[in-house]
Design a protein that fits this description.
The structure is a single chain. This protein has 146 residues and is mainly alpha-helical. The protein is built from six helices and two strands; from the N terminus they run ααββαααα. A two-stranded antiparallel ribbon has the order 1-2. Helix 1 packs across helix 2 (24-32) and helix 4 runs antiparallel to helix 5. The chain is elongated. The model is unreliable at 1-5 (pLDDT under 50).
Length: 146
């Protein structure tokens, strides 16, 4: 995703898609799912503005946190209903954050195990750790668990 300023410009679907590293087909899919609503020329060609770029950037942030398509659609619908839905949108974002933080903790655990395995191999290769020490024993000795 690039940081192209498009203020005041009308972007074609191709230019809009390129900003985010998407295909025009993906942009059309997001439109069909109600996540974005491009403007139309008198000839019915889609065009996008900086406001659309900003909105799409936010939608993709939500998507990248693991928010499902159904949740994204719910968020967009609530947003379209105005400030009366702020509480519901907040709850949806809080749920998304909680799930994302849980995923993040799991990923951090996986990285730790990977780092421990790398350290184990490096110590074995350097001869600073006996060939008789299993990985499980090594983890136990450093206070980690597999």
């Amino acid at each position: 995703m690039t940081n192209i300023s498009t203020s005041g410009k009308m972007l074609s679907i191709r230019a809009f898609a390129d900003i985010f590293g998407l295909t025009p087909a993906t942009v059309r899919y997001y439109e069909s799912q109600g996540l974005i609503a491009p403007q139309r020329t008198s000839g019915q060609r889609r065009y996008f503005t900086q406001r659309d770029v900003d909105w799409m950037r936010f939608v993709l942030h939500l998507k990248n946190t693991g928010m499902s398509m159904v949740q994204l659609q719910q968020y967009v619908l609530l947003r379209s209903q105005g400030d009366a839905t702020i509480g519901q949108r907040l709850e949806l974002l809080l749920q998304t954050r909680a799930a994302f933080l849980q995923q993040q903790a799991q990923l951090e655990q996986h990285v730790q195990i990977l780092n421990d395995k790398i350290d184990w191999y490096q110590q074995r290769q350097q001869g600073t750790l006996s060939d008789q020490v299993s990985f499980a024993e090594y983890l136990s000795s450093i206070g980690h668990h597999s």
